[in-house]
Design a protein that fits this description.
This protein is an all-alpha fold and about 280 residues long. The longest helix has about 40 residues. It is globular. Bound molecules: zinc ion. The site of zinc ion has 8 residues, from loops.
């Protein structure tokens, strides 16, 4: 067979799957803060008409309907096509990361794609809900910790290697260490400044990062890069607004974590060459 055919099929499948999951992630972003069921079919918030299957095609349906309900013309949030497009892009980028050549196209790498795509999906929902509501739902932080640990253990058992191989020990230690460190900062910060410097949502998010990324160097680099990114954006926003602006900590952490998954080896060799020995 021509060598690039399996790769094109794989990339197409990863992108389409990412678009469809993106549709579900958008539903999570809207419904989780309202404690609404994720399983009820989508309906127009104004006229209550159920979304037909042909109007539920990611990105395309929104464009065809020009962002309006087919029945009553109520505007539909551009959040939906944006998150769907993001899902497709992340699915494709993750495929390119894990299966760059046909040699990696096998069950083990496909399983790794599934585990890491779950992680990227959690990041998208956590960051978007934090931006919109200043909270991080438990469903995408503390509840996802067992998935991270089981995923790391399953991939280790299946013989997945490469620099995203975390292993169950590093996963369990990472959950305890990073959750514990952030919890300490949250308690100390409140004690010293008498206001909330670090929310419990951020503590649970850090513990979830530890479960998926491992104790070191994954979560370490993510927290370092995410904190720097958050500080830079916060300072720029404060200068532009000419008053103290407090931005949520979740989004820069999520961006850094996605960056670690997709380009961690480049990050390490460029900015932290001393850490290269730690990443297998
Ligand atoms: Zn309607």
């Amino acid at each position: 067979m021509i060598e690039w055919v399996p790769s094109i099929i794989g990339q197409t499948f990863a992108t389409v799957y990412g678009l469809v999951v993106g549709s579900f992630l958008a539903v999570c972003i809207v419904r989780m803060p309202q404690d609404r069921s994720l399983l009820v079919p989508s309906a127009c918030p104004r006229c209550g008409a159920h979304v037909r299957w042909r109007d539920n095609v990611p990105v395309l349906s929104w464009l065809v309907l020009r962002g309006r309900c087919r029945d009553c013309g109520t505007p539909i949030s551009p959040l939906y096509p944006m998150v769907e497009a993001l899902g497709g892009t992340l699915g494709w980028l993750l495929y390119r990361r894990l299966m760059p050549t046909v040699d990696q196209i096998d069950g083990v790498h496909a399983a790794a794609w599934v585990v890491w795509f779950v992680f990227l999906g959690l990041l998208v929902v956590a960051a978007a809900v934090d931006v919109r509501h200043r909270i991080i739902p438990d469903q995408v932080s503390s509840y996802a910790i067992p998935i991270g640990i089981l995923g790391a253990a399953a991939l280790e058992w299946a013989g997945f290697d490469g620099w995203l191989a975390v292993g169950w020990r590093s996963s369990v230690l990472g959950t305890a260490a990073w959750g514990g460190l952030f919890a300490t900062f949250a308690v100390l910060g409140k004690f010293v400044t008498r206001q909330e410097v670090l929310g419990w949502g951020d503590v649970k998010l850090a513990a979830m990062f530890g479960a998926f990324l491992g104790i070191f160097p994954g979560t370490f680099v993510t927290v370092l890069v995410g904190s720097l990114l958050g500080a830079v954006v916060g300072i720029v926003a404060t200068l532009v607004a000419r008053r103290r602006v407090w931005l949520p900590y979740g989004p820069p952490l999520a961006v850094a974590a996605a960056g670690w998954v997709l380009w961690g080896d480049v990050l390490i060799s460029t900015f932290f060459p001393g850490l290269a020995a730690f990443s297998r």
